[in-house]
């Protein structure tokens, strides 16, 4: 593990879409793709987000159990029509990411311990 990343750990697929077709149609096509992905082994969860200031911009955050599960899902022949339908309505930029830091709720206090960060307003001890 020379890069510090466990390759058998959860991964997040981040896909930013710029929709050039009707938004409602894109969301319908995406919902069908979502249903397909949710049935695949290793799928954990996903969120489709729409940018508040740019209604043509969407981001999908999909968490998978591991890289291999994600690659198997997108490699299935049944996935190809979903990808084609999404491409007909949008263009996308994507990547597969490994978590380096996760903080939720009260976790900021724990994270801040030992840090000097004027942006966060914390001083390390």
UniProtKB/TrEMBL annotation:
Domain of life: Bacteria
A Pfam family of this chain: ABM
Domain ABM: 11-101
Protein name from the UniProt record: ABM domain-containing protein
């Amino acid at each position: 593990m020379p890069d510090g990343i466990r390759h058998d750990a959860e991964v997040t697929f981040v896909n930013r879409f710029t929709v050039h077709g009707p938004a409602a149609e894109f969301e319908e096509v995406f919902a069908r793709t979502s249903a397909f992905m949710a049935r695949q082994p290793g799928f954990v969860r996903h969120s489709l987000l729409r940018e508040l200031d740019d209604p043509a911009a969407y981001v999908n955050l999909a968490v998978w159990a591991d890289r291999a599960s994600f690659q198997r899902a997108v490699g299935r022949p049944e996935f190809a029509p979903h990808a084609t339908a999404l491409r007909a309505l949008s263009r996308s930029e994507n990547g597969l990411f490994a978590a380096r830091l996760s903080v939720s709720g009260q976790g900021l206090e724990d994270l801040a311990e030992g840090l000097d960060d004027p942006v966060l307003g914390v001083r390390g001890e």
